[in-house]
Design a protein that fits this description.
- This protein is mostly helical.
- It has 3 domains: about 1-85, de novo design (two linked rop proteins), CATH 1.20.1440; about 95-160, Arc Repressor Mutant, subunit A, CATH 1.10.10; about 175-235, Orthogonal Bundle (Arc Repressor Mutant, subunit A).
- The chain is about 55% helix and about 10% strand.
- It contains 11 helices and 6 strands.
- The strands form 2 sheets. It has a 3-stranded antiparallel sheet. It has a 3-stranded antiparallel sheet with strand order 4-6-5.
- Strand 2 and strand 3 (about 165-170) form a beta hairpin.
- Helix 6 (about 95-110) packs across helix 7.
- The N and C termini lie far apart (about 50 Å).
Length: about 250
């Protein structure tokens, strides 16, 4: 129950922040802004009230999720002050805290390096799962740690594919343009077929198969040769958790 309310609270704050940005850009008129912002403010205060009644430390939530940093416009409307200076990083110094998360990131990257790429959301979930002792580690903490690990040259870092899908490069990838095109095509669902590649890029069947086979050879794709799928290529680093792994694999 508490997790659901916190999720709804976070979403309301994020929406309020976006609404204020649109208003400042002139994309929302003043009457709509006042009506919608008041409704969102009421939602936020309602969620905060429920969390307080449950005994939740609101300051801990605001600090832990870095509301003032991530949603500054909403924070101003809510009169939330930046409280990050008082953050203790759970008994560690700031650098020690991010180094600790960074070690978990490297563990996940090592275990999944054969994929080449890993969805950012999936990596965050895996890292948080490995750090039960850090009670308030946030998604933003993991992203900050990924950036630090990348700056130190240990992994290539975060990359945004076409369509806005964010992935983490787990090892240096020297991709040709046609290989990058196929990965971008697969980004939203985690797989592509030979026919889909041919139709999308107007490639010959030979070229489509050659590019897909090269991604299999690089360890980034797995070929499902079952007739029912018509030759489907899965990208484990991009595949959602609810998608099953093909039982029969090989070149196609």
């Amino acid at each position: 129950m508490q997790d659901r309310i916190e999720t709804e609270l976070y979403a309301s704050i994020a929406t309020l922040d976006q609404l204020k940005k649109l208003y400042d850009l002139g994309a929302v008129d003043v009457r709509v802004f006042h009506r919608e912002s008041q409704a969102l403010l009421d939602e936020v205060h309602s969620h905060l009230g429920m969390l307080r009644r449950m005994g939740r430390d609101i300051s801990s939530f605001i600090d832990g999720e870095r509301i003032a940093d991530v949603f500054p416009d909403a924070a101003n409307l809510l009169n939330i002050r930046d409280q990050t200076t008082s953050r203790t990083y759970q008994g560690l110094s700031k650098d020690e805290y991010y180094d600790y998360i960074g070690l978990a990131i490297l563990d996940v990257a090592t275990e999944n390096s054969s994929k080449g790429l890993m969805g950012l959301a999936e990596l965050i979930v895996e890292v948080v799962r490995r750090l039960p002792q850090l009670k308030t580690v946030t998604y933003n903490d993991v992203i900050e740690a990924v950036n630090r690990v990348s700056e130190n040259g240990l992994i290539p870092g975060i990359r945004t594919l076409r369509g806005g899908v964010k992935v983490v490069e787990l090892r240096p990838l020297e991709l040709r343009q046609d290989q990058s095109d196929v990965i971008n095509l697969a980004a939203s669902k985690g797989h592509v077929s030979v026919e889909e590649v041919m139709l999308t890029f107007k490639w010959s069947e030979d070229h489509a198969r050659q590019v897909l086979s090269s991604l299999v050879d690089a360890g980034m794709a797995v070929a499902d040769i079952r007739f029912s799928t018509g030759g489907r290529y899965y990208f484990p680093g991009l595949r959602s958790r609810d998608q099953s792994t093909p039982k029969s694999v090989g070149s196609y």
